[in-house]
């Protein structure tokens, strides 16, 4: 049995010692609502993005009755409700608690677990890491000290296919087959029994808190620990064999379409799902929101894919919406210089679909971040991937993809920079198409 060390109180920093963080993180949660220009915002942590069909219904109802009628999917596969009225917090909390979406008031913001969403459904992957995610969540909720983790601290569980391993986890578990797993933390790695993996991930988080307390810099994430401080896996009781930290596996996210005999994958246009589109995912055993702002639907009839397409979900890799994301922008965010969501949809992406004959468009998703469309290559050459593109209303670039992507940054009402090149809004379609296809 592995046990995590509880954190000790932080010492007073030495004079001159750099303080990385001088306050707690301000991440919104289900109980800590954020004030935005379009109302209050609640972020619901969904370990591995998982929702039961009842929870899908509850979330859709909450969006309609308390919010602006939609949910946003975050780059960690969590869900956000926007446009909430002042004073709705208690009602929202009661609704979520009844549906099992708020199992702990003290730990609700630390349940940041991303796991390969198609694990156990499509025959790929060495282990069903969805089961790890449930076990790790249970361990987190049972450890009182774990509530001290930052709302930004991230656990990543990859089933060996490499779709999520590169998403910047503080603690990353990778299934390697043969009943074994690798635990990666801060550039160090150990190999251990797969059955110990969830406990070891929790122990590593405890070791991080101990190191952060010792450093006294208020670090929220492993990479913020100052030089000389690290996560000592041996000292926190992880019974693993240290190995030279191998490169993390890298593979594509699940493509929109049929995943297996009873599973589908779809994307949400610009990461938003109206209540109607959310309900369109049912009937299903469960829905897993993904870091690519989509949903894997488990326990469903793959023949329903055309219905989901008709409901406005992205069901094909060559959809003009695939790979296009945007931050909240105006009017929801006061910092935004433009209505980036309006400018992102759908012109610039639609051009990609018209570049070649439909049968020349490949079916593989992009290799980085968001599943990306493919455009036809020269005769005799494979189709080339189209980069994901992200529209941002300001330099913070909230929610941008990992890996390579095309950066579309608002610089004024009618002006942008596309990968740094000043571009008037009216020229965006051509500029974005060129940037996504020529790098
Ligand atoms: S990138 Fe800027 S404009 Fe967009 S949501 Fe973040 S802070 Fe707001």
What keyword list fits this structure?
439 residues; alpha+beta; Sulfite Reductase Hemoprotein, domain 1; five-stranded antiparallel β-sheet; 9 helices; 23 strands; 21% helix; binds iron/sulfur cluster
Describe the structure.
The protein is of the alpha+beta class and 439 residues long. The protein has a domain at 324-438: Sulfite Reductase Hemoprotein, domain 1, CATH 3.30.413. The protein has helices spanning 53-65, 89-98, 129-142, 197-215, 275-280, 305-310, 340-344, 347-353, 428-438; strands at 34-36, 39-44, 50-52, 70-73, 79-84, 113-115, 155-158, 171-177, 180-185, 188-193, 241-243, 257-260, 263-267, 272-274, 286-289, 294-298, 324-326, 374-375, 384-385, 389-392, 406-412, 415-418, 421-424. A 6-stranded mixed beta sheet has the order 6-7-8-9-10-11, with helices on one face. It has a 5-stranded antiparallel beta sheet with strand order 1-2-5-4-14. A 5-stranded antiparallel beta sheet has the order 3-15-16-13-12. Strand 22 and strand 23 (421-424) form a beta hairpin. The longest helix has 19 residues, at 197-215. It starts with 33 loop residues before the first strand and ends with a helix. The chain binds iron/sulfur cluster.
CATH topology of one domain: Sulfite Reductase Hemoprotein, domain 1
Number of helices: 9
Proportion of residues in helical segments: 10-25%
Distance between the termini: 49 Å
> What share of residues are in beta strands?
15-25%
Using only C-alpha atoms, the radius of gyration works out to: 22 Å
Question: Could you tell me the mean pLDDT?
Answer: 87
């Amino acid at each position: 049995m592995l046990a995590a060390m509880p954190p000790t109180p932080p010492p007073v920093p030495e004079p001159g010692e750099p303080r990385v963080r001088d306050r707690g993180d301000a991440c919104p949660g289900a109980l800590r609502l954020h004030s935005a220009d379009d109302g209050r915002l609640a972020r619901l942590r969904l370990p591995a993005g998982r929702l039961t069909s009842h929870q899908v219904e509850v979330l859709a109802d909450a969006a309609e009755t308390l919010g602006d009628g939609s949910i946003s999917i975050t780059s960690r596969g969590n869900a956000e409700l926007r446009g909430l009225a002042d004073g709705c917090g208690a009602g929202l909390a009661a609704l979520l608690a009844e549906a099992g979406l708020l199992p702990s008031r003290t730990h609700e913001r630390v349940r940041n677990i991303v796991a390969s969403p198609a694990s156990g459904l499509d025959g790929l992957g060495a282990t069903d890491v969805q089961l790890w995610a449930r076990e790790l969540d249970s361990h987190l909720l049972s450890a009182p000290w774990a509530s001290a983790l930052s709302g930004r601290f991230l656990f990543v569980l990859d089933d060996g296919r490499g779709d999520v391993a590169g998403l910047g986890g503080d603690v990353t578990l990778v299934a390697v087959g043969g009943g074994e797993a690798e635990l990666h933390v801060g550039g160090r790695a150990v190999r251990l029994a797969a059955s110990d993996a969830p406990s070891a991930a929790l122990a590593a988080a405890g070791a991080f808190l101990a190191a952060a307390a010792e450093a006294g810099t208020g670090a929220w994430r492993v990479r913020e620990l100052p030089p000389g401080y690290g996560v000592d896996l041996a000292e926190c009781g992880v019974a693993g064999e240290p190995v030279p930290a191998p490169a993390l596996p890298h593979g594509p996210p699940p493509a929109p379409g049929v995943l297996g005999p009873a599973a589908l994958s779809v994307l949400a246009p610009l990461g938003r799902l109206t209540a109607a589109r959310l309900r369109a995912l049912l009937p299903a055993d469960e829905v897993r929101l993904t870091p690519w702002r989509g949903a894997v639907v488990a326990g469903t009839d793959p023949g329903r894919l055309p219905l989901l397409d008709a409901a406005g979900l992205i069901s094909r890799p060559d959809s003009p919406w695939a790979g296009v994301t945007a931050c909240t922008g105006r009017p929801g965010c006061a910092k935004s210089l433009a209505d980036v969501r309006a400018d992102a949809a759908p012109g610039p992406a639609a051009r990609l679909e018209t570049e070649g004959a439909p049968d020349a468009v490949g079916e593989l998703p992009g290799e980085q971040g968001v599943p990306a469309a493919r455009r036809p290559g020269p005769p005799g050459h494979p189709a080339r991937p189209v980069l994901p593109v992200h529209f941002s209303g300001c330099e913070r670039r909230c929610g941008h993809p990992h890996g390579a992507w095309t950066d579309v940054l608002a610089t004024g009402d009618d002006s942008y920079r596309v990968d740094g090149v000043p571009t008037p809004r009216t020229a965006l379609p051509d500029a974005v198409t060129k940037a996504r296809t020529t790098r």
